[in-house]
Acyltransferase (Paraburkholderia tagetis), 345 residues
Amino acid sequence: MHNNNFNLLRLLFAAAVIFSHSFELLGYPDPLERLSSTMSAGTLGVCGFFILSGYLTAQSWSHEPRPLAFLKKRALRLYPAFIVASALSVLVVGPLGASTQHYFGEWSPHKFFADLIGLRQPRTPAVFLGSPVASVNGSMWTITFELRCYLMMTVLGLCGFMKRSWVLLAIALVVNAGAIYGAPHWRGEEGLAFFGVSGFMIWFASMYLAGVCFYLFRGRIPLRAPFAACALIVFVIALFSTQSVTRAAVPTMGAYLVFYFGQLQSPWLAKLRMRVDLSYGLYLYGWPVMQLTAHWLPSITPLVACVSVTAVCIPLAFASWQCVEAPALRLKRAMTPRSRPVAVL
């Protein structure tokens, strides 16, 4: 179960998000986005998370195709750490960066609990005045889309599509076509909507379904070095092309690279494998720590901020894993029949 590099990949994806935010929250453009004009390093990291999530949750569903059990396990993976990070962001980080003297007087507990249930980034009174993104934890906005992808997986499973791989592949291609078509037009948090479904949901769903398809066709997709080299070349060229081309390349060439590297076996990679997964904690705490760093040290350079924030967030992520995530995962494993393996998500 641990004979792969998925935890290492997720750690790299979380580091890419912190790297990107270290520039953006100090008022600089992300270096990759400035060079390519299509996608930031942080966006690529988030895409990687959704691709891996699709693969691992498809594995989980195939081992135990029961909707209630599936959703309980997903809730145990997302909610505990999210609740703790939200509380710390609102009750500790928010007051430290408050732009109002009556922070708690203006804060709404009702909105806070509603945001927890929906796994949305917490709403607070005005904070971090002058920041390019005046949010107490802007990273959290993607977590609600992860939840929606889990609900989508449940519907697909109940409809029997998880047993019809070619039908699911067709669905994935249609969703990705929607993501490609809408790419030049999407703006704002929800973006352009198709039949009431937000553009961002279509985009994240295309990443997630790419991972699902790689799981369903895992026995038919050869993961070989020459193919990976070709995929890398096409992927890099796509990054420096248009938004539409990039959105076509990420769930195809990008996903191939993720799973090639994920299954790559070598002595030096084996030494880097970890049983603990610090990626969720890094992702949840990177933004608020970076926001405070930019607030207290506005003259700090992005690269120094990136290293400093990562150094602070690693022990926070470890504490989140040891005290919150791992205990929740033990509950999740207790729900799984002993004769079946457990997906690491």
